[in-house]
Amino acid sequence: MSARAVPSSAGQVSHWPALAILCAGQLMVILDGTIVNVALPSIQESLGFSSSSLGWVVNAYLIPFGGLLLLSGRIGDLFGRKQVFVGGLALFTAASMLCGLAQSPAMLLVARFAQGAGGAVTSSVTLAMIVTMFTEPGERAKAIGVYSFVQSAGGTLGLLLGGVLTQTTSWHWIFFVNVPIGVAAVVLARRILAAERTGSRGRSTDAPGAVLVTAALMLAVYTIVEAADHGFGSARTLGSGLGSLVLLAAFVVRQATADDPLLPPRMFGYRNVSGALGAHALMVAGMFGFQFLAVLYMQKVLGFDEVRTGLGVVPVSVLIGLMSLFLAPRLIARFGARAVLLVALVLIAGGLGLLGRIPVDGTYFTDVFPATVPLGIGFGLAMPSLAGLAMSGATPQDSGLASGMFNTMQQVGASLGLAVLSTLAASHTGALLHDGASRDEALTGGYQLAFRVGSCFVLTALVTAAVVLRTPRGTTSGTSAPGHTPSRPAEPNTTSA
């Protein structure tokens, strides 16, 4: 992928305007994953959602988003990432307008599904375009730092923006705000981003594989998000989970026999790629406990309103920005992505462990704020490291697919974390209430347990990273160009991001 030549002060071509467009589109998509959460009560009252159906305002977005990432990344590799990015952004913007205009539950859910599809198409190729565009290791590390800041801080920024818009205007504006930004981004993307050569000649989209993996992923996300309401042992959850596994198994068989598979088995032949993807899913599953459960603790136990709750997570966003934009690239260049990632995961696990000790009579500055420091620093260091490692070994022709895999793992991890942690918190709260605990005591006990389990997720990610990942030979930064050939085919893990 390339950008139109934009001369820098040194007379060299600058890709930073193109990066700004890519990150603006990605930020809208990430924000929309959380900006809706604080507006759900207002949406329920306005449109008449039942308590059981309200969760589908979120799920209708998550299911297509998680299911279409791999297919969209493959289409970008074959037919051009610029076209895929612009098309996805246009769909997301149009769907945002329809969401804001919704006058019934059905209209909102259909528009949210379209939003999720547009978000998946947009996100699937963004990271691939960045690593292909920035070929110099130092510049790529900075660019990935910017991308990682958008990925990791966008969720917490969405909580603040959602609270402000809902309180000062109406819930409709959490969707309308995307429209002018999206239109401007589409226009600028068409002008600034240049079409790249594709590797579509002689290759196919593997339609059977695409149908199988998209159905498997959508059903898997559906199973996870519905498990929070029906329980992991219910017949409904087990049935849909089994169906997802059957579809996934059929997809694996198809990939092993297809002449031009959607997901080439070689993508898993690189140790750093597989290890980074696994660690990424586990880390996000644990970290999602902060984005979801800390908000509930501040609102239901500490009594915060939407705006104060949003302000409560701002320190995490600020630290993520400082780490990912300024410190992470330097540390990765000096010590390597693997070493930085291991330290970052220790910090995240420690921050969640601190939240596992929150008291029923706690305060923000003594019990919540101290945990935001290691969480913000850790996540700000971990995301650039993981993004670089996950893209390692991907050839330019497959970088869109690798980008889709990275975002798929993030989406699956977030959905899994939400389902498991919220279910644990709710069940433990119910047990404590049954034993005679007060409402605040029961809620706090449920949140404590969920935070501790979230910390265990991150510790598992730490073990995975320590055992599987390897420091590339002959470099400390882990920032080689995508498509870099390993020095010895028998050890594909020696490529770097």
UniProtKB/TrEMBL annotation:
What range(s) does the Major facilitator superfamily (MFS) profile domain occupy? Answer: 18-473
| SUPFAM superfamilies for the chain | MFS general substrate transporter (SSF103473)
Where does this one sit in the cell? Answer: Cell membrane
Which parts of the sequence are annotated with region: Disordered? 473-497
The membrane-spanning stretches of this chain are: 18-40, 52-72, 84-103, 109-132, 144-165, 171-193, 205-225, 237-256, 277-298, 310-328, 335-356, 368-391, 412-429, 449-469
The main place the protein resides is: membrane
What membrane topology was assigned to this protein in its record? Multi-pass membrane protein
Keywords of the record: Antibiotic resistance, Cell membrane, Membrane, Transmembrane, Transmembrane helix, Transport
Q: Name one Pfam family in it.
A: MFS_1
- Which residue ranges have biased composition labelled Polar residues? 473-482
Please give the name of this protein.
MFS transporter
Name the source organism. Answer: Streptomyces musisoli
